[in-house]
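hey can u check if this looks right to u? its 382 residues, i copy pasted from the old doc so theres a chance i mangled smth
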Amino acid sequence: MKWKIPLFKTYSDKDDEKAVIEVIRRGTYWAAGPEISEFEKRVAEYVGTKYALSFNSGTSALHTLLLACNIKNKEVIVPSFTFVATANAVLLAGGIPVFAETEYTTFGLRYGDVKKKITKKTRVIIQLHYGGFPGRDTLLLRELAKKRGILFLEDAAESLGASINNQKVGSFGDASIFSFCQNKIISTGEGGMITTDSKELYEKSKLLRSHGRVEDAVDYFSSIGNNDYIEPGYNFRMSSMSSALGLSQFKKIEKIIKLRQMWGKYITSHLSGIEWMIPPAEMIGLRSIYQMYTLKILESGLRDSLQSYLARKGIMSKVYFTPLHLMIIYKKLGYKKGDLPETELLSSKVLTIPIYPDMTKKEADYIIKSIKEFDVNHGKKA
């Protein structure tokens, strides 16, 4: 379907085009150019960590990080209210995903339920920063992990630039991951990054990222020598072209964030009077950057009707997220409906509507007008 208003549009300009073209015209170093290390350096400085390591996707970054954390046959506490990659990466690294409830304010892991789920086999807790909104219980979870001797990781795929008490997400955990997929704050098409202060996790992840190959002072593609290989690894590297695009996008990150915040607050100001819905919540001390704009629909059954109505108006919307523990892959592991009642209830109420940096006032007003029309008519046949 061709939407009048899509769920997202990727922000770009001529500087982005120029950055990629320059790498192409260079005719060499497409896979291992200087743009890669420069992009990593910029992100590490921005987030506030010692190290950053680029990947071809956020999923690859998380998969590699969990391998580096040595979770084989160990339990990893994850949200069920997240994209499937968060839990799949646990399985791919040989771990056991243990799903915990999600809190209703910012949609991160709920501290109280995580505490209940910890066992002697728990190796990692993965906090989620949902849709550009820092997880409310992040500091509590970090302290809990520290006391129990458990690794604390952040899935900040959607939230580069968000912060808690002026400290960027991605710097609270033992390590964190970001995504640069097409709908994220900045994009390289596909791409990801690990950030960490741990030299051990950084070096192990770097080894696994590129075939288990020992990295000499001279780049593999520029050397006549033959590198040694320590263990099996993957080809999860980010290319020079993607990194060049990432660098160009990164120069605009605060502009992009301000535009997202502007449209998020504009939409909220016009929808806040509707009694049966709750707009995204901004909490004191948390910098929210509106990678997504997710409504909570309070009246049972109304969410699906609203989604259908918006579709008829040409406005795309999506349910982010359906609980992972109810997906076939995790039902096979023994999970079933009723295991996480709060998460299941939350998922039945959420609806993500369009937001993007170069949204126009006409587009925003059309979304607002359509929701208000539905509000007037929802007691009738919508």
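The domain at 14-250 is CATH 3.40.640.10 (Aspartate Aminotransferase; domain 2).
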